[in-house]
Structures are given as structure tokens and as C-alpha cells.
Amino acid sequence: MDTNRNPEINTNLCDNCGICVENCTENALHLEKQGPVFNSPNTCTYCAICEEICPLHAIRVPYTVSWKA
Fold it and tell me: Is residue 3 part of a domain?
């Protein structure tokens, strides 16, 4: 399982509003000229707040749910 995967940011949809950066509880994002990028991949906790608040739906947090029997 890939444990270092970050949410996916579609820079074609993003307008650099910075809402995701301002609301990231882990400070995992910062805003650059091309859009939001991750400061450190390990700081993202996959809370999905960024996906929920993005007004343009430019961030996607793909989850994989699995459990052992």
C-alpha cells in the first residue's frame, strides 16, 4: 500500500484562491505561482478538509478502504 500519497490537485481547475492553504489544519500546503503544493508529504493526515472546501473542486482525496479478515 502506498502510504505517502497526497491529495490530487488539478492545477487546470485551481484559481489559486488559497482557501485550502488557509484551512489546512496540518499546514501541509503552501501556495506557489502554479497553485497549492505540499510542504512535506508526511504532514498531510488525509483529513480531506481541502477537498470539502475547495469551491472549484480542484482537490480530490482518493481513499482506499481495506481491512483484514
Answer: no
- Evaluate whether residue 2 is within a structural domain: no
Distance CA 44, CA 22 (A): 14
Tally of structural domains, the chain: 1
Environment class of 59 (CB within 10 Å of its CB; exposed 0-12, middle 13-18, buried 19+): buried
Write b or e for each residue in 26-39: b if 16 or more Cβ atoms lie within 10 A of its Cβ, otherwise e. Answer: eebbeeeeebbeee
Phi-psi region of 65 (alpha: psi -120 to 50; beta: other; left: phi over 0): beta
Model confidence pLDDT, tens digit, residues 21-64: 999 999 999 999 989 998 877 888 889 999 999 999 999 998 77
